[in-house]
Design a protein that fits this description.
Blueprint (H helix, E strand, L loop, with lengths): L44 E8 L9 E10 L2 E9 L8 H7 L3 H4 L5 H12 L3 E3 L3 H15 L19 H8 L8 H7 L10 H15 L9 H23 L3
Parallel strand pairs: 1-4
Antiparallel strand pairs: 1-2, 2-3
C-alpha cells in the first residue's frame, strides 16, 4: 500500500480542487495521530535504546532503557531508567554495557517504571537504531508485564513503523565497511562518549538521523519517509537472502 497522494489527485493525475480538502493522507506504518504529509522532522521523535542481559528478547531482560526526544533537529528531553532484571547479569553482557548486578540491585523492576516510560513515548514517532532489537525487547517486556493501556503510544502499536536510521545508513553509505552506530557517528562527526549506555546511544542515533536527513535522497514528509524505509528494508532483506543462499 502506498501513501495517498496529498495533492488531491486521483490515479488519472487530474486535480479536483473542489474536494481535495476532504481527502486525508493515509499511509501504512504511520502513527494515525500525526500528519503523514508534514515533515517528519517537525514531529516529536522518541529515540529509544535499551541495554539488556542478553540478545534474546524472549528470555533476556532489560537492565537500562533511555528515551531521547528530538524535535526540529534538536534534542529537547532525555529520560533514562536503570532496571532490576530479576536475575544475574551475565559477565559477557556487563563487558558490553558495563552495568553490574550491584548497579541495579536497588532499582525498580520494569513494571514499576512502565507508566513513566509510556508517558514519555506518547504522541511521538518511535525510533531506534537497528530498531528490530530495541522494539522487540520493549514489546516483550510490555507483554510480560501485562500492560495493555486503553490509548497506547505509537511505540506500543504493532501497526506503527519505527524510524530506523540504520536502514538509510545502509543505503546512503553502502560502500562503508560498517554502518554500526559508533562508526556512523564518527563518520558524521557526532560525539559518542559512552557507547553502549542507553542515553548516549539514543542521543547519538537521533543526531545521526538528523545528519542523514540533510541528504536529498531522504524523504521529508513523514508518510513518504516511512514508505521509503519500507522499500529499502525489502531490498536489503532480499539482498541478505541472496547472500545466504547456497551457490
Amino acid at each position: 500500500m502506498k501513501v495517498a497522494d496529498p495533492c488531491g489527485c486521483f490515479p488519472t493525475g487530474r486535480h479536483y480542487p473542489g474536494i481535495a480538502h476532504l481527502l486525508k493522507v493515509r499511509a501504512v506504518g504511520v502513527a494515525s495521530e500525526l500528519d503523514a504529509s508534514a515533515p517528519w522532522i517537525d514531529h516529536p521523535i522518541a529515540f529509544l535504546d535499551v541495554e539488556t542481559t542478553g540478545r534474546n528478547a524472549a528470555v533476556d531482560r532489560l537492565v537500562e532503557v533511555a528515551v531521547v526526544i528530538g524535535l526540529r533537529g534538536d534534542v529537547v528531553a532525555r529520560h533514562s531508567w536503570l532496571v532490576n532484571p530479576g536475575r544475574p547479569i551475565p559477565a559477557e553482557s556487563t563487558a558490553v554495557h558495563g552495568i553490574r548486578d550491584e548497579d541495579v540491585a536497588d532499582k525498580p523492576a520494569f513494571p514499576e517504571i512502565v507508566g513513566e516510560l509510556l508517558a514519555t513515548l506518547a504522541g511521538a514517532i518511535p525510533a531506534a537504531y537497528n530498531a528490530v532489537f530495541d522494539r522487540g525487547f520493549l514489546l516483550a517486556e510490555l507483554e510480560r508485564a501485562g500492560v495493555r493501556p486503553e490509548n497506547p503510544p505509537p511505540a506500543m502499536r504493532r501497526e506503527v513503523d519505527w524510524i530506523d536510521p540504520l536502514t538509510f545508513a545502509r543505503e546512503l553509505y553502502k560502500h562503508e565497511g560498517s554502518r554500526a552506530l559508533g562508526d556512523m557517528a564518527a563518520l558524521l562527526g557526532i560525539e559518542l562518549v559512552n557507547a553502549h549506555r542507553a542515553t548516549d546511544d539514543a542521543e547519538a542515533a537521533l543526531r545521526v538521523l538528523y545528519a542523514l536527513a540533510k541528504d536529498s535522497r531522504v524523504p521529508r514528509a513523514y508518510g513518504s519517509f516511512i514508505q521509503e524505509q519500507r522499500r529499502l528494508l525489502r531490498m536489503q532483506d532480499e539482498a541478505r537472502a541472496r547472500w545466504r543462499r547456497p551457490s
